[in-house]
Write a structure and sequence with these properties.
Length: 104
């Protein structure tokens, strides 16, 4: 249940925390918790991605992700930890001249 609450909350970060001109995408791509259908798992692991063109927006969203996750878990008397390895990959921006060459 807690993982579901976190996923729902994360879906509001982009719409509420970024300007419309700064596109960003937060995706939770996998949730792994438990091994049986009738036993509440003691833990869950969620994995996802963050994509944006702006490094400042990326930093802001990572900070908010940590805040959201920690506060939601705390409200349920649980613990949550955000692991965001490295700074992520930089945005791919193709140069117009090289792109035109490959297109030809």
């Amino acid at each position: 249940m807690l993982a579901s609450q976190i996923v729902m909350a994360l879906q509001t970060i982009v719409s509420r925390e970024t300007r419309p001109g700064d596109p960003a995408v937060v995706t939770v791509g996998s949730i792994h918790g438990g091994t049986k259908h009738n036993i509440i798992p003691a833990s869950a692991i969620m994995k996802g991605s963050l994509r944006t063109f702006n490094a400042e927006v990326r930093t802001q969203i990572v900070e908010r992700l940590g805040s959201f996750i920690t506060n939601i878990a705390h409200a349920s008397q649980a613990e949550a930890h955000l692991s965001f390895p490295g700074a992520g990959c930089p945005t791919v921006i193709n140069h117009q001249e090289e792109t035109a060459f490959v297109h030809r």
